[in-house]
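Students often ask why inverse folding is considered easier than folding. One informal answer: many sequences map to the same fold, so there is more than one right answer. In these notes we will look at a single instance of the problem. The structure comes first.
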């Protein structure tokens, strides 16, 4: 049985990936902070698809505890076939001079360092097995910048660079590396960005049809299901209604 490890599996793209990989018969290692929601998601997946789920209730910004939780998994669970570095977020949408230092720290610690921490642990497992596939969730914000996107865009540009670096560093071990860069996807993302302001979050998608999480999960499945001689390095996937990264923030 194949194993997928998904960070940020309680909501949005990560939750959609968990469903899709479970439906494809993968057993899952799911990482997130919200214990009750993770347990509920895991129970549903086990009941619906008859697969096994390991729940890792951890903040990916905490390397020591994340490492302990993952390294103490049973040995056969460490033969991870697919790592989906999904956990991430944006905090605020302010011009640089008005930005919050703590928001900047949260985005940098989650989107860059958290991704590095999970990759550090799992890539070593994959190197030992000389196989695996790492999927990094970037963003259109990792390809372009937009007004007030500053630090979030910078973190996703970092993910873009890290993806290219991982691809080179892990090639000798037969490990595939791919990035997917979505445009607007209607998840909890905007509610998190605007600190729970549901009206402001909803307005982001007014007047256009955004992507949904399943669109990204299906694209990731396409990437993962390519034959061994094919590696998709980078996929940019946008709502038809969104040509560039500019977020129209309707206050
Ligand atoms: N939605 C969009 O428009 C786009 C999103 N993206 C990227 O897609 C990825 C997923 O976002 P999306 O599904 O939209 O957003 P959601 O807010 O719906 O999901 C984010 C997930 O990440 C988890 N998470 C956040 N911080 C941490 C942390 N410190 N430790 C562990 N888990 C964490 C959350 O779980 P919990 O709170 O339980 O820990 C949640 O499961 C992110 O990297 C985002 O930047 C990229 C392009 C577009
Ligand atoms: N595409 C969105 C999420 O990453 C954004 O850029 O805000």
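Output (designed amino acids):
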């Amino acid at each position: 049985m194949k194993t997928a490890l998904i960070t940020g599996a309680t909501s949005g793209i990560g939750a959609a990936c968990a469903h899709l990989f479970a439906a494809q018969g993968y057993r899952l290692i799911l990482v997130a902070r919200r214990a009750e929601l993770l347990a509920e998601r895991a129970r549903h997946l086990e009941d619906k698809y008859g697969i096994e789920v390991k729940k890792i209730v951890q903040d990916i910004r905490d390397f020591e505890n994340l490492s302990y939780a993952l390294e103490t998994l049973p040995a056969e669970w460490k033969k991870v076939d697919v790592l989906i570095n999904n956990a991430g977020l944006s905090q605020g949408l302010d011009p640089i001079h008005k930005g919050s230092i703590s928001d900047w720290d949260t985005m940098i610690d989650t989107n860059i360092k958290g991704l590095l921490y999970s990759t550090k642990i799992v890539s070593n497992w994959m190197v030992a097995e000389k196989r695996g596939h790492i999927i990094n969730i970037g963003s259109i914000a990792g390809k372009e910048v937009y007004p007030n996107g500053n630090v979030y865009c910078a973190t996703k540009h970092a993910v873009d660079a890290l993806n290219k670096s991982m691809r080179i560093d892990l090639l000798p071990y037969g490990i595939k590396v791919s990035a997917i860069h979505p445009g607007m996807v209607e998840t909890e993302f905007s509610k998190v960005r605007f600190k729970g302001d549901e009206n402001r979050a909803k307005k982001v998608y007014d007047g256009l049809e955004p992507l949904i999480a399943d669109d990204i999960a299906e694209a990731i499945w396409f990437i993962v299901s390519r034959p061994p001689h094919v590696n998709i390095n980078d996929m940019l996937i946008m709502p038809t209604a969104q040509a560039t990264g500019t977020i129209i923030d309707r206050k």
